[in-house]
Amino acid sequence: MLNQILDVKGLETRFRTDEGIVHAVNGVSFTVDEGETIGIVGESGCGKSVTMLSVLRLIPTPPGMIAGGTAEFYGQDLLKLQEEEMRHIRGAQISMIFQDPMTSLNPVLTIGKQLTEPMLLHLNMTQEKADEKAAELLEMVGISGASERLKDYPHQFSGGMRQRVMIAMALSCNPKVLIADEPTTALDVTIQAQFIDLVKRLQKNLGMAIIWITHDLGVIAGLAKRMMVMYGGSFIEEADVKELYANPQHPYTIGLLGSLPRLDGKHSERLVSIDGLPPVLYEPPTSCPFAPRCEFVIDKCLKENPILEEFSPKHRVACWVDISTGRSR
């Protein structure tokens, strides 16, 4: 049986703006087991990145604030640790690949300097040993001539190579959890496929858990075992990937899957779109945040916000409506 390494419960994050307080994450709960890959999907602005930045305590304060919840990593609540203690967790035990490889690397420092810094900090390596390990990491992620490339600067690497450098940096201290925040967004399709194959191979060799954040359901299909769909700062559906793709139960998930082109010829009609705009949550949601855009909406949706409840074993959904009948559950 796999051991649970991360257990997040009731996470709430807010941002103070000139227009009011935005309730970006609202009572999110999830778990991660050793060695598993989970996907978090949803449209831009739904709270995917903020959720994981909150877990790592990387939310800028102010204007951000973690307003509630717990995030236990091997039984230790990350949200209650001192900042110095968190520095020994970030990068060493939980690493993150950020969205944009073009801006994630410091343009005035060599690749070698940026790769060796976490090893010098967390593993107490000598500079010589750190340089050797950095070269090994670059070779491992498919960058040839690694020893010489350590002397180069980020602008001397292509976008795909910078993303590989970011992977090498994230893996430099052999983390237990790797958070990948839309890492393929800036890459072309061919490089995306190579990147995903690389991550899967490295996970198999290193045994780490992966949390993959994306709005691309096609990427998740070939990568994750379990998937969580996010909307309006909350998880609205969770299931194994195969189950969720075959039997989606939330109207928003159905809309997401309907917007994907298919190559098997099963759906020849036009791709669907979801009318309306995502909510701006200046108040905690007291009704279903998807209700204004939902074709299945009933009166209860406008009065009460549903919570994730079991639909079938390992499949949970936050919806008041049985979509097969259009009636209340």
Largest sheet: 8 strands, mixed
N to C succession of SSEs: EEEHEEHEHHHHHEHEHEEHHEEEE
Helical fraction equals 25-40%
User: What coarse outline follows from CA principal-axis ratios?
Assistant: globular
Mean pLDDT figure: 86
What do you see in this structure?
This protein is α/β, with parallel strands linked by helices and 329 residues long. Helices cover 29% and strands 26% of the residues. It is built from eleven helices and 14 strands. The protein has helices at 48-55, 83-87, 101-104, 111-122, 127-140, 146-149, 159-171, 189-206, 217-221, 241-246, 251-258, and strands at residues 4-17, 20-33, 37-41, 64-73, 76-77, 94-97, 177-181, 209-214, 226-231, 234-240, 309-312, 315-317, 321-322, 327-328. The strands form three sheets. The protein has an eight-stranded mixed sheet with strand order 6-7-8-3-9-10-12-11, sandwiched between helices. A four-stranded antiparallel sheet has the order 2-1-4-5, with helices on one face. A two-stranded antiparallel ribbon has the order 13-14. A hairpin with a 2-residue loop joins strand 9 and strand 10 (234-240). Helix 4 (111-122) packs across helix 5 (127-140), helix 5 (127-140) crosses helix 7 (159-171) and helix 7 runs parallel beside helix 8. The mean pLDDT is 86.
Helices and strands, with pairings:
Layout: E1 4-17, E2 20-33, E3 37-41, H1 48-55, E4 64-73, E5 76-77, H2 83-87, E6 94-97, H3 101-104, H4 111-122, H5 127-140, H6 146-149, H7 159-171, E7 177-181, H8 189-206, E8 209-214, H9 217-221, E9 226-231, E10 234-240, H10 241-246, H11 251-258, E11 309-312, E12 315-317, E13 321-322, E14 327-328
Parallel strand pairs: 3-8, 3-9, 6-7, 7-8
Antiparallel strand pairs: 1-2, 1-4, 4-5, 9-10, 10-12, 11-12, 13-14
Helix pairs in contact: 4-5, 5-7, 7-8
